[in-house]
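Hello again,

I reread your note about wanting to compare the complex against the isolated chains. To keep things tidy I'm splitting this into two emails, and this first one only covers the full assembly. Below are the input lines as submitted, including protein chains and any nucleic acid or small-molecule components. They are followed by the predicted structure of everything together. The single-chain runs will come separately.
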Amino acid sequence: MDVLFLSRLQFALTTAFHYLYPPLSIGLGLLLIVVEALWLRTKNPVYHQMARFWTKVFALTFALGVATGLVLEFEFGTNWATYSRYVGDVFGSALAAEGIFAFFLESGFLAVLLFGWDKVGPGLHFFATCMVALGAHFSAVWIIVANSWMQTPAGFKIVGEGLSARAEITDFWAMVFNPSSVDRLTHTLSGCWQAGAWLMVSVGAYYLLKKRHRDFGLACVKIGLAVAVVSTLFTAYTGHHSAIGVAKNQPAKLAAFEGLWDTQPKAPLYVAGWVDEKAQTTHGIAIPGALSLLTHANTAAPVTGLRDIPADERPPVHFTFQLYHLMIAVGGALLALAAWAVWALWRGKLEDSRLLLGCLTLSVLGPQIANQAGWWAAEVGRQPWIVYKLLRTSDALSKVVQANQVLASIIMFSVIYVLLFGVFIFLLNHKIQHGPDESDLVPTGKLARGTKGGAL
Amino acid sequence: MNFGDLDLNTVWFILLAVLLTGYAVLDGFDLGVGMLHLFVAKNDTDRRILLNAIGPVWDGNEVWLVTGGGALFAAFPLVYATVFSGFYLALMALLCALIFRAVSIEVRSKHDSPAWRKFWDVCFALGSFVAALLLGVAIGNVARGLPLDAHGEFAGTFLGLLNPYSLGIGLLAVVLFAMHGALYLVLKTEGELQARVERWSHPLAIAFTLLYAAMTLATLFHIPHLNAVFLANHNYLLVFFLGALAIGAIRVMIRRKKPLAAFIASSLGIVGLMAVFSLGAYPHLVYCPEFPERSLTIFNAASSRPTLSIMLTIALIGMPLVIAYTAGIYWVFRGKVKLTKTSY
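Full-complex prediction:
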């Protein structure tokens, strides 16, 4: 195994594992705002109990997100030194902004959110909750901007040649608002909201299924579902927009997503299929003309196929195709599940159907699978480029790092991450089985001021 | 923003030094608490008090390192690339330590089993120790200079990084942070636990002062290029003596039972050490003793002027906010630690 393969494997492994947690933090951050706002408005103690319960889950996901995220900041330099020299001038300002605006905001107010329940008043605590959620969203903004620049570079010039070539910024705002950043940011954030919302639905549905903590469970399902419905629809909308952008800016990636070999009008859209890369054909169930219609709003418009892309600029087609279709299939299933649950809730029959409650309990896996598959498709689909059309992944490595060093670190991360994942699942399950604290129905400390429970 | 003729490279060198110094002062006591808690705490309640003494602040403190790393990447990408790829195995070990540390703090009290808690307590202590040691070793290596090839890539080996001088600086960092942590804990604890922490601060302060003297002498005899800088600039010597004064004051304040003054002296001592390290390096970021012309400086390793000025604009907007709410958080959580149901 060579350094290139190992370094890519390590980055994929560490990023994918990291990405289990930030979507939960971003999604739960939003839900914590909703729940705490509801509590401040209605003074319904169940909302206070929910805020306390979900804050603890948030703390766990946040800690794991921080611990695993640090790795990524280091890895650009350790494994991808040539890339770091190349993009530092452009990419660095986004990362520095993330540190200054996002991480400090999050970590500072997190202390008030977690430990400040009895120390500060309700207004300030709510403010802290909002700031933590804002910080989580901010970090998504800057990291997506940086990643989008790698997909659709803009606002830069190339200085120097050969080994010393690097990108220099010419227009900061053109870099920030590069052609794909807004589409990809909205799509990523809506996927994150889903991750948080479906987790809340899932835990609520589990309690209803087990006939425990009924009020709490029902409130989780209702609030979680409201956010899930909105964000699922928004994900579909932003996904559609993103695909139009990919068709325009990264035709090779779109062709790989859809396994399209020949440039053609009335290009088909595969519902499911199989790509034979050797024979350069794709088999499956396809809707004729739908790809042209979706990407160009016109069935007669031609869509670029892989044969018109030089062979050494094509991404791995079959892998990208399957990941992309997995994402869409899971997204569609979540949309259907949301519709079913809303309908049942509206008819007042949610708690009657054990099948529905069972599906809702499992729903937490949906956004995780779709988020992972979507990111894998987006990143593998960009290959063989690390910065689209500018720098090849194979040229971006650290020159002084050897294969055995990378292998050693992969083994280290694998062991640590298996342990961390086990700890995460163990503690999450522990928290869920323990359930909401009855004592959390009565607010304490300064928060209790002005509420009925506070008189006690 | 347009910064006219301002030397942005120097400004970013200073800002980077400020971020790393902020990290050393703030996360320094966290790391120290991590190293000490196994020895100082007698029971689970003690241990939780020590953990919650840093509970609300440790995460924010670590952000100074994260932002420092980001700023290095942004302002001096060539240094970030050379140092991070050159220190590959050392940094992987540092990551391992920081991950275990962060996770230990978060999870240890979430499950009520002695074996579980013991395991995470040991991880917390080891993680803190290894992180302090490696950060010190890294600083030591940068101070004494690194072998670079003609392309500015690191030309040494992992074992070469573990040279006696750098290991000495690593040990200095370990003892310094342990002492700094003990002084912080004296402020945050009370009663018998406080007395025990206080007892630990005496030998740590003595050990640190001796090590500091030894490493200063080692620098004097072992690192000629640093001495040359200080002999050529007498103002720099003033900074060195002020730092030495603060370090001398630590033990005096401990003996006079003035814990806040001792903690401030120890913080100023760290600032002094970082200032001496930065002044000695300037304008180099990575000095190459064999081939000084290959050295990476704040000029040949920097990002372009537009990037440095965009980043300075970001920093000028962001840093006052950061300082304001960092101060706010320390204010909200001031005073002695009391365990409640939201504690770790």
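For quick reference: Chain B touches chain A through 69 residues (CB under 8 Å).

B.
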